Amino acid sequence: MTETPVLSIRSWIREALLGYAFWCLFQGLAPIIWFFPLNELELSGYEAFAVCLLSPCILGITAFKRFFSQRYSMALLRLIAIAGLGSFQCPSTISRLIVLCAGLASSLIVLAASITSKNQLKRHTTAWGLILGLLTFVSVRVWFLSFVPTWWNDTWNSITVAFGIIATIDKIASGEDSEPKSNEKDVYNRNCLIMGCGLGTMLFQTQLLLGESSILSRWTIKEYPDPGPQPFPHGALIIFTLLIGVFLIWNGIFRRSKLACIVYTISFFILYYFPRTTGFSAGLLVILYTFLVWPEILDDLTTSRAASTFVIGAIVYLIEIFFSVWTVAYNFVPGGVFTRERTHVLIGIMTATLSLYVLTGKDQKKNNSPAMILNAKGSRGTTKHASSSLMIICILLLLFGFGGFFYRLPNQEFNHPPKEHPNANFTAAIWTYHFGYDNRGWPSLERTKTLFDKIDADFITLLESDASKTFLGNNDLGLWLSEKMGMYVDFGPSTKDHTWGNLILSRYPIVKSKHHLLPSPEGELAPAITATVNMSGNFIDFVVTHMGNDRDVLDRKLQAEVLSKELKKATNPVVFLGYVTSAPQSREYLQLIEKGNVKDIDSTDMDRWCEYIMYRGLRRLGYARISNGGLSDTEIQVAKFQIPESKNFKDNDKLITNPSKIERINRFNPSFGEFSHGHNWIVDHRYHMSTPKYFLP
What we know:
Elements: H1 9-40, H2 62-68, H3 71-85, H4 93-115, H5 120-143, H6 154-174, H7 192-210, H8 215-219, H9 231-234, H10 236-250, H11 258-273, H12 276-301, H13 306-328, H14 336-339, H15 343-360, H16 364-367, H17 388-407, E1 425-432, H18 445-455, E2 459-463, H19 477-485, E3 488-490, E4 502-506, E5 510-518, E6 526-535, E7 538-546, H20 553-568, E8 574-579, H21 587-595, E9 599-600, E10 611-616, E11 619-626, E12 636-642, E13 654-656, E14 693-696
Parallel strand pairs: 1-2, 7-8
Antiparallel strand pairs: 1-12, 2-4, 3-4, 5-6, 6-7, 8-10, 9-10, 11-12, 11-14, 13-14
Helix pairs in contact: 1-3, 1-4, 1-5, 1-6, 3-4, 3-6, 5-17, 7-12, 7-13, 7-15, 10-12, 10-17, 11-12, 11-15, 13-15, 20-21
């Protein structure tokens, strides 16, 4: 076997950048496709763009395989792939989707052609480039609080594209894409069906758990006071697990172990069924196993039928990611009744296909296969395929990820003004957030922070907030907002609980909470949180929820009954912030008001449908409705309350709209305009719907 040249650190940095570009494109596809059915609440037809994942099928045609194996053809494909990264700056959602799909399709053809090339160096750099790119992808997201900088804003997108262009030009100039002339017949060592199933599961499983360091915490999160391991600092254990994986791969310890396969399968189900530390620890084993299998599968891909294996892999990946969507969106898709809340079935499929691949393979080291051995250290005369520079790059990339955690130390307590009498007032807000994407499909976090800084809310509940799911980008909205806004966060029901999410942010410590999965026999699973917050010694209870769809009448009836019981048994002053999907004076509304023993913040406001604010044991000061500003399809509702000094107090009943008669400290921010009737259709945040209103004795 010909010795593979030892590459320089510069070459490995280039490969890491190219690998990172692949993972950015791959991760970016699902969220932008999801944008369309999200707005229509049904299949939109744009899901067909996922066909770009089948692009390697073109390599099944001999003429195209020869064409795309040539140096200049590869150069063209690489440049198209980098252009796909620039899709973020396209003027419309559909143009962004088209350009991204073109880039991903080109990137997959490059990957398939390169990993099965007769050029040993080309195979070697492609395989390790994919692994280095994954390490880069995970580490860089730590610094961006779970987000991918490529898809964050125009500045970081341009920086990524610039580095991608530099790396691509350097790759083209190196001549490593040249294909040697050879009359040797291709040797295929594995069944392409089994290989494809393994590849598809690996791609999905990597996205599901390994694409971001906070995902595992959100799978195993529970209520306060013991929520379990948190994204910070426990997310650093994911980086540490990958570091262990690098050393195991380097020393060739993992070789298709049956015991490891059994442990992986059991651990995956423990992760699913057990919360907190038990589930988190099992998840670390699943992540370690996933990372260890990557070199094995890349090794096998070098002697596979590129077209067949990658197409089967893409189909398996699509089946698994659509299955994951169907487990949550079952109320809006055909056949949802069969997939409803059945993630355990998906896990069974994943563990079965990956175990089948691992256990039916042969150890290349023992069988002298022509496949490139990815055991970096080598043993007993095997060719040394990786230099010390490769090991250095792996370690540096992971240390870069650790740096993102150390940069955020120390984890100080938030220092907010105490709530003391006579100004023991607080502001609460509710918003249906649409997973952190605006109405055009671009991230809205920075604009959200600006919005809430102006609102000056002490307590916020965000609905449709669980973007930690694979098809939503694995973005942790709670992590980003809590750290940037200096607020405590309760993520709500975990990512594996099949809801759309319901988190709370509080400037003051969350003493205790309880997560609820409300009765939902007909429709989507409705989440809720009951929480107690310590506002400088004043304990306030909050009940927040996203009730079911308006067409699911039985669901809303049962959900209102549960929520009213939670409201009634609250022992402290209580605030209800809920998405009720019912009109004022409806059955659900009256159930909450009468059985929950609460008051509407403004019973005269009859033009509401979704969001409601109710309360008990507090003195109301003000109520405002703020237009969504293009960041969501739902307005923000805000209420100001005063914490009474004693239980014997009289509520404010006089309604006024002139802020000059209100103490400045109790006024709403004038930057949103003045009192305004009707809807605000301007793409900006403005008071509307006959608010803001104030209440006096």
